[in-house]
């Protein structure tokens, strides 16, 4: 469904990603692992088109998106929950959700019930400003905003960063339910090994901007963790 081939990207004169290739299939949760600063967020931004690829390609359902603008990638069916959430602080919760509809492939005027059903606390906060929410509530809002467009591929960059354990559990349940539906491909960046092991099907490890290991949950053993992930 989503394929990255020999991708090279960076900032200014700096090359961050080197020859990165990965695939995410429908109904699969693929986890991208690595220590801080190895290029995980850079890869997510490159897939979304927020950062231009210097070499290589990004394809989705066989269509080359490498030179497409971020808005066109979103409308093609790729949803993105960025690190830091990036909700609109001055807009209400409901207005934030409506903005998610801009990426929908079908013109709709109301937030789909299935996006809200996964985060039932949000309707009770519709009139509150996004900036007044707690970090965990903002993360739920950012997640629901991405789901409002009914994406077929969902990019999640550090969804559990800086939020309370109860909401981490809620996000785990949502990812599991998306996986169980079997219709959406998920690419997840997350530092917590316990979390990714609880939801992931396949794993890639980045080091210095390159994929240095890939494999299933069964092969993600202590040696791999010690070599590439332990700080």
TrEMBL record:
Origin: domain of life: Bacteria
Q: Which SUPFAM superfamilies match?
A: P-loop containing nucleoside triphosphate hydrolases (SSF52540)
UniProt GO molecular function:
ATP binding; ATP hydrolysis activity; branched-chain amino acid transmembrane transporter activity
Q: Which Pfam families match?
A: ABC_tran (PF00005)
The record's InterPro entries line, in alphabetical order, gives: AAA+_ATPase, ABC_transporter-like_ATP-bd, ABC_transptr_urea_ATP-bd_UrtE, BCAA_Transport_ATP-bd_LivF, P-loop_NTPase
Q: Which UniProt keywords apply?
A: Amino-acid transport, ATP-binding, Nucleotide-binding, Transport
UniProt cross-references to CDD domains, sorted A to Z = ABC_TM1139_LivF_branched (cd03224)
Q: Where in this chain does the record put each ABC transporter domain? A: 2-231
Name a single GO biological process.
L-amino acid transport
Q: Which NCBIfam families match?
A: urea_trans_UrtE
The record's annotation in PANTHER family points to: HIGH-AFFINITY BRANCHED-CHAIN AMINO ACID TRANSPORT ATP-BINDING PROTEIN (PTHR43820:SF5), HIGH-AFFINITY BRANCHED-CHAIN AMINO ACID TRANSPORT ATP-BINDING PROTEIN LIVF (PTHR43820)
Family note: Belongs to the ABC transporter superfamily.
User: What is this protein's name?
Assistant: Urea transport system ATP-binding protein
């Amino acid at each position: 469904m989503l394929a990255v081939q020999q991708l090279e990207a960076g900032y200014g004169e700096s090359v961050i990603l080197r020859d990165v290739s990965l695939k995410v299939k429908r109904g699969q949760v693929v986890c991208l692992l690595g220590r801080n600063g190895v290029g995980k967020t850079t890869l997510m931004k490159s897939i979304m088109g927020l950062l231009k690829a210097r070499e290589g390609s990004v394809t989705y359902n066989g269509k080359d998106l490498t030179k497409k603008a971020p808005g066109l990638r979103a409308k093609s069916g790729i949803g993105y929950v960025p690190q830091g959430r990036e909700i609109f602080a001055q807009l209400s919760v409901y207005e934030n959700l409506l903005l998610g509809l801009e990426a929908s492939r079908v013109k709709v005027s109301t937030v789909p019930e299935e996006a809200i059903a996964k985060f039932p606390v949000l309707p009770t906060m519709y009139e509150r400003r996004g900036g007044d929410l707690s970090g965990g509530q903002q993360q739920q809002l950012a997640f629901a905003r991405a789901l409002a467009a009914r994406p077929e591929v969902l990019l999640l960059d550090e969804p559990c960063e800086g939020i309370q354990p109860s909401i981490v559990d809620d996000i785990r349940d949502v990812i599991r339910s998306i996986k169980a539906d079997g219709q959406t491909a998920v690419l997840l960046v997350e530092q917590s090994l316990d979390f990714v092991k609880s939801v992931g099907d396949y794993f890639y490890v980045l080091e210095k901007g390159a994929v240095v290991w890939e494999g299933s949950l069964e092969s993600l053993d202590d040696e791999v963790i010690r070599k590439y992930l332990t700080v």
